[in-house]
Design goal:
Helix content is 34%, strand content 28%. It is an alpha/beta fold. α2 runs parallel beside α3.
Length: 338
């Protein structure tokens, strides 16, 4: 059994998600202790329990000590079950964080899996569903991952209720060298629910103005209203293609002007774009578990080596015994996996 210290690095849920995915793929039983020990509310939270239950059902796994607040669990994966799985995260627990776990775990199997997940699509401290769909999954597919999602309903804080359907098919994941930055004109998609459509339009216009002040031309723009239980908004600025996967997103909050939401998304996008990094800091950490399981070495440049990235590199190395290195390349980080 592989024992993993959950307080390593950023000490949050990332260790849990990556460890569960790799444990399931490689059939390695694990014990994770000190779970989220560095957080104000340490131990398992409801959204973590939902993710564990989803992957346990997917892999017919045995899980010990699975309860809210638990600081230690043991996970014993078995063979993948071929079936459709429905999961209700409860309230506004992040759907995209669960997808970070189940897509890598399922794509290495020889069976197709369908998920329906109910919860939060656009919530704090996680990628928005548009970012995951239009940036993360585009990068995954460029690696050979055969996965798709459909956002059927938005879910915001506090009640969630968003619905996302996901299809994951057998995949052939390959190694990569994403080192060249290409200037790809950004696109913008702005969404609101149970609010005037003008809110989404104002978010978009604010982001567009900031990009134009930096000399960028927006390739495509869209603002729309979508159904949800609660009021909410999100916006994404992104550029993808030819080894470039950059996105900046933001969500609306009560009392926060739509113009500020749009400006935040544009600023997040510009961080990677102006650094001339082909991968933004978020998609960089999400591709790491896949690259450690691909044949051959990989290299990529990202705008920042975050704690999430360092944590994923470390955890993946524990499972695979492969080595990695992070080097500075001007104002970017060069990640090499051997």
């Amino acid at each position: 059994m592989l024992r993993i210290d959950g307080s390593y690095g950023e000490g949050g849920g990332q260790i849990l998600r990556t460890s569960l995915a790799l444990s399931s793929i490689l059939k390695v039983p694990i014990e994770i202790y000190n779970i989220r020990a560095k957080r104000e509310n340490p131990g398992l939270r409801p959204q973590h329990i939902s993710a564990i239950k989803a992957i346990a059902e997917l892999y017919n796994a045995k899980v010990e000590n699975l309860k809210e607040g638990s600081g230690i669990i043991r996970f014993y994966p078995r063979e993948l079950k071929e079936e459709k799985i429905s999961l209700n995260v409860g309230t506004a627990g992040s759907i995209t964080l669960i997808l970070q776990t189940i897509i890598p775990a399922a794509c290495f199997s020889n069976k197709a899996v369908e998920f329906e997940i109910i919860g939060g699509t656009d919530v704090k401290w996680s990628p928005t569903s548009n970012y995951f769909s239009l940036v993360t999954l585009e990068a995954f597919r460029a690696l050979g991952v055969n996965a798709y999602i459909k956002i059927e309903k938005r879910g915001y804080y506090p009640r969630g209720g968003g619905i996302v359907k996901c299809i994951i098919k057998p995949s052939n994941v390959k190694s990569i060298e994403w080192l060249k930055f290409k200037e790809i004109n950004p696109c913008i998609v702005s969404v609101c629910s149970n609010l005037p459509l003008s809110v989404a339009e104002r978010q978009l216009n604010s982001a567009k103005k900031k990009l134009e002040r930096e000399g960028l031309r927006v390739e495509r723009e869209e603002f729309k209203e979508e159904s949800a239980i609660d009021k909410g908004t999100s916006i994404l600025v992104y550029s993808t293609g030819e080894g470039v996967f950059i996105g900046g997103d933001a969500i609306g909050e009560k009392g926060k002007p739509a113009e500020l939401v749009g400006e935040e998304a544009a600023q997040s996008f510009l961080k990677a774009y102006k650094a001339k990094a082909p991968l933004d800091e978020h998609v960089a950490d999400m591709i790491v578990p896949l690259l450690f399981l691909a044949e051959g070495s990989s290299k990529f440049l990202t705008s920042e080596a975050t704690e999430h990235l360092k944590t994923n590199l470390y955890i993946a190395s524990l499972f695979t015994k492969r080595e990695y290195r992070i080097d500075l390349d001007e104002n970017r980080s060069l990640v090499s996996i051997f």
